[in-house]
Specification:
- The complex is a heterodimer.
- By secondary structure, chain A is mainly α.
- Helices cover about 75% and strands about 0% of the residues of chain A.
- Chain A has one domain.
- In chain A, helix 3 packs antiparallel against helix 4, helix 4 crosses helix 5 and helix 4 packs antiparallel against helix 6.
- By secondary structure, chain B is an all-alpha fold.
- Chain B has five helices and no strands.
- In chain B, helix 1 runs antiparallel to helix 2.
- Chain B is elongated and about 50 Å long.
- Chain B starts with 15 loop residues before the first helix and ends in a 6-residue tail after the last helix.
- Classes of the chains: A mainly alpha, B mainly alpha.
């Protein structure tokens, strides 16, 4: 009887720990994505003109869809990849070294996606290679692609600055790592108390 | 719920529910990457005249569209269905709808951007209906397959056999 009671208590404690793990895992992803979305929204507000250039000439509905796509790519995608990196490192070890590795990997993944997008927004040759079906020798100027005019005579008033654009995401990755690994220590304290 | 908890203080155990977030994102990355790679070869075969350079196209489709948008789709699908138990009918339906919707938004934006003068992404000018139809069909298939793999016993057993998605 006593053994059964002890076994029941142990199982209940294990279930509560498991519930805590699930909650923490989901919370890490939610926080990473939310911070990524905040970073994307900041960039959209600060660099609205160069980012929305590709949507010029379309309807307002398309502009909204395009802004949503930007937030998905620049915010949700980078947040998800950061969350993935943090979760996988956290599973291995809750220590500071894991936090540092998670930060570096998260930063690398975030930078890769953001730099491809940034290149697409700022480099007409790259965007031409990526999206245009017209052969390079058939193109007189890359300014034929609206919103990607690289001619100095037609310089855009605001050009997406790579350091400025990546800074909010850099902060988002750092905050996500801090949240995840601080949460881990809190979780361990909670489980010890239970 | 079956657990593999070694001790009350062991926070690094693996349960299907704990793996759910990472698994959803990784699965949609794989599905997104497969879709984009299929589109790449489909475009090269159907519209061979529209391929001046492969490097830029590879970087854009594999990194941004495949990995980036796949991760975004997985995150949205997970966040939308996380309120429901994995394997439940509600989780199955919501994961499928969320996954397919995000992929469809990508396809729509891609189509409108590529419809602009000077831009032509593997046939959006030559055959716009084909561009949109193949994109929406693959979006729906992607959402359904992803949801089936994540929320059915047979699907989970398939995922358990793949090291990256285990």
């Amino acid at each position: 009887m006593a053994a059964q009671h002890q076994e029941g208590c142990e199982r209940a404690r294990q279930d509560s720990v498991l519930a805590l793990i699930v909650v923490v895992s989901a919370a890490i992803l939610r926080v990473s994505v939310a911070l990524g979305v905040c970073a994307a929204l900041i960039n959209l507000l600060v660099w609205r003109q160069p980012i929305m250039e590709m949507a010029n000439g379309h309807t307002s509905a398309f502009k909204v869809l395009y802004a949503m796509w930007f937030v998905l790519a620049w915010g949700v995608a980078t947040g998800a990849l950061t969350g993935l990196a943090i979760s996988s490192m956290r599973r291995r070890s809750p220590g500071r070294l894991s936090a540092a590795v998670a930060f570096v990997v998260g930063l690398l993944l975030m930078s890769t996606v953001c730099l491809v997008l940034w290149r697409g927004f700022t480099d007409a040759k790259f965007m031409h290679d990526a999206m245009s079906g017209v052969r390079p020798d058939e193109v007189n100027s890359y300014s034929t692609i609206p919103g990607m005019d690289m001619d100095p005579a037609h310089t855009q008033p605001a050009r997406l600055n790579v350091v400025g654009a990546l800074t909010p995401n850099f902060i988002a990755v750092a905050l996500s790592v801090i949240y995840a690994f601080r949460g881990e220590r809190q979780g361990m304290r909670l489980s010890k108390q239970s | 719920m079956t657990t593999a908890v070694a001790g009350a203080n062991d926070l690094h155990v693996e349960s299907p529910e704990e793996r759910r977030a990472a698994r959803t994102i990784k699965l949609f990355i794989v599905l997104g990457w497969l879709s984009e790679t299929t589109f790449l070869f489909f475009g090269m075969i159907m519209f061979p005249q529209l391929h001046p350079s492969l490097i830029g196209r590879l970087i854009w489709t594999q990194i941004l569209c495949g990995i980036g948008m796949g991760a975004a789709t997985g995150a949205i699908a997970y966040l939308a269905a996380s309120g429901f138990k994995q394997g439940s009918r509600a989780a199955l339906i919501i994961t499928a709808i969320a996954g397919a919707t995000v992929l469809a938004v990508c396809n729509t934006v891609c189509f409108f951007v590529d419809s602009r003068p000077g831009v032509d992404y593997w046939g959006s000018h030559e055959n716009p209906a084909l561009f949109l139809t193949k994109g929406y069909i693959v979006s729906i298939i992607g959402g359904l397959v992803g949801s089936w793999l994540l929320n059915t016993k047979r699907g989970v057993s398939v995922l358990d056999k793949i090291p990256f998605l285990r």
